[in-house]
Amino acid sequence: MTPPEMRAAFFRTFPGVAPAIILSAIDQTITATALPAIAGSLGAVESLSWVVVAYLVAATIAAPVFGRLGDAFGRRNLLLAALCLAACGAAISATAPRFEVLIVGRLVQGLAGGGLATLAMALIGEAVPPRERGRFQAWIVACFTTASCLGPLAGGWLTEEFGWRAVFWVLLPWIGLALPLALRIPAVPGHRHGGFRFDLAGLLLFAGFVGPALLALSYAQRLVLSALPMAIGLALVAALALHLLVRQERRVRDPLLPLALLAEPTILRSNLMTACAHGALVALLTFLPIFLQSVRGATPAGSGLLMLPLSLGGGIGGLTAGALMTRTGIAMPFARWGLAIAAAALAAIALFAGRIPDWEMAALFGLVALGFGCSYPVVQIVVQVAAGPARLGAAAASVQYARTLGAAAATAMLGALLFGTLAAGDAEVASLFAQLVRRGPGLLAELSAEQQTGLRAGLGEAFRSAFLGAAAMAGLGSWLAGRVPMQRLG
């Protein structure tokens, strides 16, 4: 395929998947800024985390379902179905009269989001040869960067001007734009190989694993001892479901999770690597507003500006790695060195955060994101190449749920590291931090000057441990990248 033919193939598909990529990326960020308003309107402060957890659970479950069905029946039709599901979920959430109905809407949105992310990546892989996919990463990275930058701003403005329901209503015209564009994607038949039987038992067991596992991590993030028994109980349920799931997938003809594919060294280590990288980045984004506002004294707007390099750096890293992959045919070394750079920058933040000005902190954040960003296109392309055309959907799905589970696990681990460091020092400061995580930086205004000073000092030391923990995750990801058998694309 000549370069003009590749560009033509890519731009026949990309306009149809770009709105889906943006929709799947923006759904969480645009909603996060509306959470306080939702709590005030529906009176569900203690259960507010379910708005996020419900989406994550459903998205993780949906990824292999849409990936497997896309492999069997063609991905364009499944993308259209996911867009329709997203519209239903947004409408349910926007009109929810009670918190329980909102959670149903978020579950439906999560099912759609998991499908959109998986199918979009697989459709790009279907249109462009493996080595040349890096050439077009700029367009994909631009979608994710736009969504991550505009989501919080749009969510905050819509909530302030029109109320929290507007963050869901605004998704409907976007989906209306996406549907006719998706219809223009060339239809490619699926690979059914003499019939296809959907693995319903595997789906139920996978849900039985993912739901309790993510809920266990959610309880662990509450940072209170009273939540520990529930977290342990849910973890045991998840372990049992995982054991039964493995047995089920080994004996069915068309498994939901092709274990042979997932166990291939290239795919297994690539997914573990992206779970470390994505998990560390999401965990940092979760706790950084608290660090910047409570330790460094930044305003909410100021903390947003300091975190902006995290979005820009990730886009630059993805673009650079994609272009170099196309030019050289080398893949994993870019992820390996990128994550090594991220680990070094995080270690520098841990050591010097109390002594460097804001602009140097922002520059280090950008370096961290650039390093993490180098891993994103590498993993997608290497896993797709290792899986082959007939298993593109399953491969893309494996990356999606590896990242989701990695994000949940890393956030819980960094939270436990933060709380553990505080608990080893001052119990009152640890209690204040637990409230700060649940209620946000707005709690600071209610504290006395003495409490604020004690909290700031304790958090400074705790975040040093957290940054070192994130650096260790990035370092582990770098080591795993070096252990992936497929270092080149050919």
Key phrases:
mainly alpha; single chain; globular; 490 residues; 18 helices
Please tell me about this protein's structure.
It is a single chain. The chain has 490 residues and is an all-alpha fold. The chain has helices spanning 3-32, 35-42, 50-73, 75-94, 99-127, 137-162, 166-169, 171-183, 200-220, 228-251, 259-263, 265-295, 300-328, 332-352, 358-387, 392-423, 427-439, 449-482. The chain is globular. 52% of the residues are buried. The mean pLDDT is 81.
What's this entry about, in short?
The chain is mainly alpha-helical and 490 residues long.
Q: Low-confidence stretches at least 5 residues in length (pLDDT < 50)?
A: none
Mean pLDDT: 81
Please count the helical segments.
18
Rg: 22 Å
- What shape does the CA trace take? globular
Task: Classify the secondary structure makeup into a structural class.
Answer: mainly alpha
Into which percent range does the helicity of residues fall? over 70%
Number of strands: 0
Q: Strand share of the residues?
A: under 5%
Termini separation (Å)? 16 Å
Element order: H for helix, E for strand: HHHHHHHHHHHHHHHHHH
The largest β sheet comes out as: none
